[in-house]
Write a structure and sequence with these properties.
The chain is mainly beta. It has no helices and 14 strands. The protein is elongated. The two termini are 42 Å apart.
Length: 155
């Protein structure tokens, strides 16, 4: 829920559904020491979401212009980031492997969330709300160990 105005207790709650097909490319290379190196790229998606925008209480947005409480048809686009990963698994003993991964997320592509709704303002009127996201690209690092205890037990 998002508070619609500092001068009001009315909130907007948006719910919707979407599905999309994405692309992931990957490659794996065996190293001479028995380890592997993997590369993967996942293309960001634009989720075209359709659902409802529920206004909790009537709100005046300008002199003489009021949006009535209720549920209205809504749609918007959610931009999800590209992801690029490099992973390494390398043996450090006969039964233990060292694991490393670095993943780059291009969250800056998610710059705003724009939602278009049909609201009742003296008749049917389209309105678009925009919420700046200001996300920054991020990088995640992962380290781990994998040990084979034998008889199928690996931790």
């Amino acid at each position: 829920s998002k508070l619609l105005s500092a001068a009001s207790t009315s909130t907007s709650t948006i719910k919707g559904d979407s599905s999309a097909i994405g692309i992931t490319l990957g490659a794996q290379f065996d190293m001479d020491n028995g380890g592997t190196v993997g590369l993967s790229y996942k293309k960001g998606l634009n989720q075209e979401i359709e659902g409802t925008n529920t206004i909790s209480e009537a709100i005046t947005i300008a002199a003489g212009t009021t949006i009535a409480a209720g549920s209205y048809a809504a749609s918007g686009t959610l931009k999800l980031p590209d992801m690029l990963s490099i992973s390494v698994i390398t043996p450090i003993s006969e039964s233990t492997d060292f694991l490393f991964d670095v993943t780059r997320y291009s969250w800056s592509s998610y710059d705003s969330l724009d939602v278009k709704s049909i609201a009742i303002i003296n008749g049917a009127v389209d309105m678009t709300s925009s919420s700046a996201q200001n996300y920054k690209d991020t990088t995640a690092f992962s380290l781990g160990l994998e040990h084979d205890y034998g008889d199928g037990y690996v931790a």
